[in-house]
Every structure is written in structure tokens, then in C-alpha cells.
Amino acid sequence: MSRQANRGTESKKMSSELFTLTYGALVTQLCKDYENDEDVNKQLDKMGYNIGVRLIEDFLARSNVGKCHDFRETADVIAKVAFKMYLGITPSITNWSPAGDEFSLIMENNPLVDFVELPDSHSSLIYSNLLCGVLRGALEMVQMAVEAKFVQDALKGDGVTEIRMRFIRRIEDNLPVGEE
Amino acid sequence: MPQPGPPGQKTSLLVLEGMGFRVGQALGERLPREMLAFREELDVLKFLCKDLWGAVFQKQMDSLRTNHQGTYVLQDSSFPLLVRMGSGLQYLEEAPKFLAFTCGLLRGTLSTLGIKSLVTASVAALPACKFQVVIQRS
């Protein structure tokens, strides 16, 4: 393998490790700043939301996806395009509710938690809660009010990591970019 | 280094720098040994300018200067974390917040590579910035 090719792989590896390490540093600092896990979870969600309301523009510009006609299309775009683009993984979509307004994103592996272990003292911490905020913020900018929450977490011993997405309602008014 | 802004900002910059330092240390520890076969100090700095910057910011540092006595100035004419903020003098006061983590990152990576340093950053006009690395010899 040429030195050049080696450099490319190393660069990518460094880049993804940097991402994981930086996220870990962020969560660690939040745990120091806030007294309890619940507050950290809320803060992660809020930060995620602020990222999501801006990330959506980057996503739409880079992905060229058109308008989604229903929640099923939205789910596909989230899993196959967005997650792939930003996290390099493609979660599977399962457990659709009969009304078609809820589904689950199942992640076999979550790049945010590589090499991470949750200490017993932080059992209520939703380590990757930033993702839920991102999903909520991004979808709000395309006129969808949704709820996103972790229902399974590999970090807590579950087999997989599962985010449950629930469609609340279509947002009709054109509100200015939200910030929390 | 002069610290603009209220005292609270000084603490938060230190916190950010500290986070960057720990991340830089951990990152340095994960690098394969072959990649780190440096002949001399200047090679380490070149590594930061090319490989680390490439991995983190998908670009290389624009210039590296040294007085050959342990002080290095790394220049990025278009620092990615400042590019979207603006150009020129607007938000100059805010700029340190976006540089602190990166200073720590450099200092942390150097630390794992066995080099103790002090890293500071300065911005004259966005989005160009300079990182100054001063090697601390005991």
C-alpha cells in the first residue's frame, strides 16, 4: 500500500476519532457543569436542536433531496441520506405504528460511543441525546414537529441503540429560525 | 496573551483549551507508531500542519515559520472555524472562543509526542489566524 493511500485512511480514521473524542469531551464537561444527568440530557437536547436548525440547510444543499411527501419518505431520507452523510452509518427503519406516524431508527453501531463506557454514577445519562435534538431541530425547519427519544442504548447494555421518532404535527406558520 | 472580554470569558477559554488538550492527547495516543517516526522537532510541527490539520480541517496550514529556537508560527489564511463567521474585523472579539479548543488540541497532540509547549492563537482579521507554538524546555 502506497504511503499516499495510507495517509488517506489514517486521515479519515483520525477525523472520526477526533469527532468521537470531542463529543466525549463535551459530554464530560457538561457532566462537570451540571449537577445531575437530567440537566445534562436537557442541555444536550438543546444544543442538538440549535445544531439541527442550521444543519438542515447544509443537508439540503449537499444532498439534493426533494420535498418529502409523507413521513415514510422522511424516514428513508433521515436513515439513508442524512445519517450516512453526517455519521457514516445507515440505521434501519423498523416498527412502524399502524397510523404511520411513529417509527424506530435502529443503529447497530453508534460512532459517538466508540470506546465510551458509562460509569454507574451516570446511569440516567442519555449520552447521545444531542442526536435527538438535531433531528427535532432539523425537521422543525422543514415544517415537521416531531419527538425523538432513545428507547434502547447499547451503552447501557442493550443489544442495539434505538431512537423512536414520533410525528406530532405539520407546522403551518413560517416562524423565524428557532433558537433555544 | 491579552484576554479581551469579561473575567468569565477567561475561565471559559481555559475550560475549552483544557478540553482541546485532552482530546489532542487522546488523539496522539491513537496514532500508529510508524506515522510518528520523527527525526526532529520541525518534523513534528510539519506533521501538525499537514496531517493533523488535514484530518481535522480537511486542509493544510498555509505556512509554518520558525526562529529555530523553539518558537513556531503556524498560519492559516482561512481557518475553517472562522470562515463562516465573517471576514475582516467584525466579531474579532468573539474569535478567541473559536480558537481556544484548537490551541489545546495542538498542545495536547504535542504533549503525547513528548513535546511540552505553550500554544496561543491570534486573529488580526477574520478568517485568517496564527497559532504560536513555543516549546517549553525544562
TrEMBL record, chain A:
Family of this protein: Belongs to the TRAPP small subunits family. BET3 subfamily.
Organism for this UniProt entry: Myotis lucifugus
InterPro entries given in the database record: Bet3, NO_sig/Golgi_transp_ligand-bd, TRAPP_component
SUPFAM superfamilies: Ligand-binding domain in the NO signalling and Golgi transport
GO CC terms of this entry: cytosol; endoplasmic reticulum; Golgi membrane; TRAPP complex
Pfam families hit by this protein: TRAPP
UniProt keywords, alphabetically: Endoplasmic reticulum, ER-Golgi transport, Golgi apparatus, Lipoprotein, Palmitate, Transport
Superkingdom, taxonomy of origin: Eukaryota
Single Gene Ontology BP annotation: endoplasmic reticulum to Golgi vesicle-mediated transport
Subunit details: Homodimer. Component of the multisubunit transport protein particle (TRAPP) complex, which includes at least TRAPPC2, TRAPPC2L, TRAPPC3, TRAPPC3L, TRAPPC4, TRAPPC5, TRAPPC8, TRAPPC9, TRAPPC10, TRAPPC11 and TRAPPC12. Heterodimer with TRAPPC6A. The heterodimer TRAPPC3-TRAPPC6A interacts with TRAPPC2L. Heterodimer with TRAPPC6b. The heterodimer TRAPPC6B-TRAPPC3 interacts with TRAPPC1 likely providing a core for TRAPP complex formation.
Keyword DNA-binding: no
Protein name per its UniProtKB record: Trafficking protein particle complex subunit
Reported function: May play a role in vesicular transport from endoplasmic reticulum to Golgi.
Subcellular compartments: Endoplasmic reticulum; Golgi apparatus, cis-Golgi network
TrEMBL record, chain B:
Methyltransferase found in the keyword field: no
Keyword Transport appears in the UniProt entry: yes
Pfam families: TRAPP (PF04051)
Gene3D superfamilies assigned to the protein according to its UniProt record, in alphabetical order: Trafficking protein particle complex subunit 3 (3.30.1380.20)
Gene Ontology cellular-component terms listed: cis-Golgi network; endoplasmic reticulum; trans-Golgi network; TRAPP complex
GO BP: endoplasmic reticulum to Golgi vesicle-mediated transport
InterPro entries: NO_sig/Golgi_transp_ligand-bd, TRAPP_component, TRAPPC6/Trs33
UniProt keywords, alphabetically: Endoplasmic reticulum, ER-Golgi transport, Golgi apparatus, Phosphoprotein, Transport
Compartment annotation: Endoplasmic reticulum; Golgi apparatus, cis-Golgi network
Biological role: May play a role in vesicular transport during the biogenesis of melanosomes.
Subunit structure: Part of the multisubunit transport protein particle (TRAPP) complex. Heterodimer with TRAPPC3. The heterodimer TRAPPC3-TRAPPC6A interacts with TRAPPC2L. Interacts with TRAPPC2L.
Recorded family membership: Belongs to the TRAPP small subunits family. BET3 subfamily.
Protein name: Trafficking protein particle complex subunit 6A
